[in-house]
Write a structure and sequence with these properties.
209 residues, mainly alpha
């Protein structure tokens, strides 16, 4: 049983639609379940779970989930628009903390959509958050975000090692994938394969497919 299954067990579907829950809970719980289902390759269930929970006041976690669904559908333009929406939301300092979790996904999706400006803003916001935090994984995620934007293998290598020492396995895998991509472009296939294998090992440990 992977960690994503544990998330589903901790937040059953009935809890996600609990009318007695706060507005925040009713928004966040379905999004958490959506993310878990996506990582378990249960895409249609994830789509149903997110359902109508994406509106003008949606939280970053819901917007990122919708962006990932758009990416799965092959609609990178829509994924990019949603990534830009989440990053724009982070322009308000009150809504910036979630970038500690989602910065790598947002940078990755923005770059995939060809939106360098949004990717750069997401990396900058992540760096600003890191400068106010003593948490190593927050700082490492910011390093990875900037490394992704700059296609900087050295930064990504440092970020992967730093993230690997903490609990953020998904971020470690994303950084390792980004490192592999950079190594491919740099003409270093052996290093790229090593980075991809590291990422794959993490995904398998999480029971992601």
């Amino acid at each position: 049983r992977g960690r994503w299954t544990q998330v589903l067990d901790a937040i059953p579907a009935s809890a996600a639609t609990d009318l007695d829950a706060s507005d925040v809970s009713r928004d966040v719980r379905p999004a958490l379940r959506c993310h878990a289902l996506l990582h378990l390759d249960r895409v249609e269930e994830a789509r149903r779970e997110l359902g109508a929970h994406l509106g003008p006041g949606s939280k970053s976690i819901s917007i990122v989930a919708a962006a990932l669904l758009a990416e799965i559908d092959g609609n990178l333009a829509a994924a990019g628009v949603l990534a830009e929406r989440a990053v724009a939301l982070a322009g308000d300092l009150r809504y910036r903390p979630p970038l500690r979790t989602w910065s790598l996904e947002l940078v990755r999706l923005a770059l995939a959509a060809g939106d360098e400006a949004t990717a750069g803003r997401a990396a900058t916001f992540a760096e600003e958050l890191a400068s106010m935090s003593g948490v190593a994984s927050v700082q490492a995620a910011a390093t990875a975000a900037r490394g992704m934007v700059e296609r900087d293998a050295a930064r990504l290598e440092d970020a992967v090692e730093d993230l690997a020492r903490g609990p953020r396995l998904v971020a470690t895998a994303r950084a390792a994938e980004a490192l592999g991509d950079v190594q491919v472009v740099s003409g270093k296939p052996t290093a790229a394969i090593a980075a991809y294998r590291r990422a794959l090992g993490i995904w398998e440990s999480l029971s992601a497919t």
